[in-house]
Structures are given as structure tokens and as C-alpha cells.
């Protein structure tokens, strides 16, 4: 009897290991995406991104049906609108970064740097021209494989907020927040990750200038481009949003950390002095990223001594519109791709 029981247990353990596996692993997942021609109409992935994390998900609104119902138990509710949203954090590979910038800024100009090899794409502040009447910017379809046999596909994803961050001992990080239209489960595709360059932009090629002069005291830099999107539902016989609209104008925000040997930057804060702020990163073979913010004013420059340690200041700033260049932000990216 014990031998038979042992045989049954052994069979079950082998069956569980072969059929049920050892659970999904994040390192075996991948993220693919491609830009859509029509908002919400799915397309197969053309980019595949190695990522730090992702949180794209489908959530369902719920609503109550009654308040006065004669019993002490909670009554049934009803399911409402589908909400697709989440964030993807990726290292700053040049081509992947270009696709993200295309999604958040839209307006571009393209210059040939080396015929058939390198192109410089400029991404400018929103100029008032929307992608379509239903979506303000270029929408994307995302495929997210989470090591569970099939992939989840998120359609009609508009990039609402993009943050670019760089600090010592880190690559450039792009944190992209999306609002989507719908989600389905699909068969997973085969991922092919970027191969040129092999590594993303990294901190050790970053240089900063403030007011036209190099500034070696900045220890961290963050740029946030916020489109302020929201999904709008209508009475159109569906449970998905009908279009995406802007709640606010596009805003440009800067933050970071300064070493604090003198009060030069503090005086700029007190006097509300506007300065240009630029950030440059490079890679071998002429890959480059150049961020130009022509008018920056500090809106927070908090100082304090938390103890005996070295003092730093975590500043915040606003990127203002520059009438001469008709922009609040210009990002020039040189890659092997001619058109995003």
C-alpha cells in the first residue's frame, strides 16, 4: 500500500513539474510594440524592448445597481468601462528611445548624417496638430509576454507621460506611461532585441550645460514630458473608451540633484533667472542624444542639513516656451533608423 502511494505521489510531482512548470519568470518575458495607422486597430510588433519593468494592465470599472434592497447582504453590482493603462521602464537604447519620443512629441524633422547609415531625428514640442480626431499622438500596439504561454496585446496605447532619467552607475532610463483602448490575448511572437548599439546610452558619456556653460556639479537629471491625457467614454454601444483627449497643455518639467559648494544656483532660484539647460549623451559609431531646453526657471530649490554628511540640493524646474525657436523642448537623436 505504501509503495503504491509512493508511486502515485511520484507521478503527480513529475506531472506537476512537466505540465504546470515552475511558475512564470519575469526574465523570460519580453515587450514588443509597433505604431498603429488607426487608433485601436492592432498591428504586429516591429520593435522589441529589453526592459526593467512593465505594468500595463486591463482594469474594469464597477458600478452599483441599487441602494435600497431589503436585505443586509451586499447586492450584486455590474461591470463597467474597460481601462487599459500602465508604465514601461526601458534602458535608453537609441532606436527604442526614438520610438518613445515619437509617441510623446510627434513633430519630427530628419537629417541624413551618413548616407544609408545614420540619421538625426529632431523631436519638438507639441505644435497643435493631432494624430487624429480620436487620438492626439501616434498610437501603439503593445505585445507583453509574461512567460505564461500566450501574450497580452494592448491596443490603442497613447503615450501620456515620458520621463528620461540619468544618474551615476545607471543607463539612461525611459519611463513611459500609457493610456490604451482595449486588450486581448494572442499567440506570442518571436522577439528580436536591438543589436546596434549593443548597449544603451550610459551615465559616463553624459554632459550638462546650464546657461551656456558646462556644469559638472549635477549628480542626477530627470526630464518629464507630460501630455496630460485621459480616456473619454461615450454612449457608443461599447465598454471601451471612445477617444483620448488632453486635460492640460503639454508640460515640460526638470528635476535633479546638485552638489552644493556655493549659492550660484540658489540665487538663480531667488531671482527667478531663466537659463538654458542642455544634456548630451553619446555612444560609439556616432549615436547621440541631445536635449535642449531653451528656458528653464527653478521652481523649487530646497536646502537643509540632515546631519553631518555632504550637502546636496534636489531642485525642480519648469521648461518654458521659447517664442524665438517656437518650442519648449528640442530633442535630437542620431540612430541607424531613418524614420520613426
Q: Can you characterise this structure?
A:
By secondary structure, the protein is mainly beta. It has one domain. It is built from 3 helices and 21 strands. The chain has helices spanning 2-20, 94-105, 264-271; strands spanning 30-35, 47-49, 53-54, 57-64, 77-91, 108-114, 118-124, 140-148, 150-166, 173-180, 182-187, 207-210, 213-214, 218-226, 229-232, 243-246, 251-259, 275-282, 288-300, 312-319, 330-335. It has a 19-stranded antiparallel sheet that branches. A two-stranded antiparallel sheet has the order 15-16. A hairpin with a 1-residue loop joins strand 8 (140-148) and strand 9.
Short structural description:
This protein has 340 residues and is mostly beta strands. It is built from 3 helices and 21 strands.
The average pLDDT is 92
- Tell me, what's the shape? globular
Determine the N-to-C terminus distance: 68 Å
Whole-angstrom Rg: 24 Å
The share of residues in extended strands comes to: over 45%
Low-pLDDT residue intervals, each spanning 5 or more residues: 15-19
Sketch the topology as an H/E string, one letter per element. HEEEEEHEEEEEEEEEEEEHEEEE
Number of helices: 3
- Helix percent reads 10-25%
Number of strands: 21
Structural class: mainly beta
The structural domain count equals 1
Largest sheet: 19 strands, antiparallel
Amino acid at each position: 500500500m505504501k509503495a503504491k502511494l509512493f508511486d502515485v505521489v511520484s507521478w503527480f510531482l513529475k506531472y506537476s513539474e512537466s505540465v504546470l512548470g515552475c511558475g512564470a519568470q519575469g526574465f523570460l518575458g519580453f515587450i514588443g510594440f509597433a505604431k498603429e495607422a488607426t487608433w485601436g486597430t492592432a498591428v504586429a510588433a516591429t520593435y522589441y524592448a529589453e526592459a526593467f519593468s512593465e505594468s500595463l494592465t486591463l482594469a474594469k470599472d464597477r458600478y452599483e445597481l441599487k441602494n435600497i434592497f431589503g436585505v443586509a447582504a451586499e447586492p450584486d453590482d455590474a461591470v463597467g468601462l474597460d481601462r487599459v493603462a500602465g508604465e514601461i521602464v526601458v534602458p535608453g537604447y537609441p532606436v527604442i528611445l526614438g520610438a518613445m519620443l515619437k509617441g510623446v512629441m510627434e513633430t519630427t524633422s530628419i537629417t541624413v548624417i551618413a548616407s544609408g547609415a545614420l540619421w538625426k531625428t529632431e523631436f519638438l514640442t507639441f505644435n497643435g496638430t493631432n494624430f487624429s480626431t480620436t487620438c492626439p499622438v501616434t498610437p501603439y500596439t503593445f505585445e507583453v509576454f509574461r512567460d505564461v504561454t500566450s501574450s497580452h496585446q494592448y491596443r490603442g496605447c497613447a503615450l501620456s507621460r515620458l520621463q528620461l532619467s540619468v544618474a551615476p552607475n545607471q543607463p539612461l532610463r525611459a519611463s513611459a506611461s500609457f493610456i490604451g483602448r482595449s486588450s486581448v490575448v494572442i499567440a506570442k511572437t518571436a522577439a528580436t532585441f536591438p543589436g546596434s548599439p549593443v548597449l544603451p546610452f550610459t551615465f559616463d558619456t553624459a554632459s550638462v550645460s546650464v546657461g551656456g556653460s558646462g556644469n559638472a556639479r549635477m549628480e542626477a537629471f530627470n526630464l518629464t514630458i507630460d501630455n496630460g491625457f485621459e480616456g473619454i467614454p461615450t454612449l457608443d454601444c461599447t465598454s471601451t473608451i471612445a477617444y483620448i483627449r488632453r486635460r492640460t497643455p503639454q508640460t515640460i518639467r526638470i528635476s535633479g540633484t546638485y552638489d552644493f559648494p556655493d549659492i550660484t544656483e540658489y540665487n538663480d532660484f531667488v531671482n527667478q533667472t531663466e537659463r538654458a539647460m542642455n544634456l548630451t549623451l553619446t555612444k560609439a559609431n556616432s549615436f547621440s542624444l541631445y536635449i535642449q531646453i531653451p528656458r528653464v526657471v527653478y521652481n523649487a530649490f530646497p536646502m537643509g542639513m540632515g546631519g553631518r554628511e555632504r550637502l546636496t540640493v534636489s531642485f525642480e524646474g519648469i521648461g518654458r516656451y521659447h517664442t524665438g525657436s517656437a518650442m519648449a523642448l528640442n530633442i535630437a537623436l542620431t540612430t541607424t533608423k531613418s524614420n520613426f
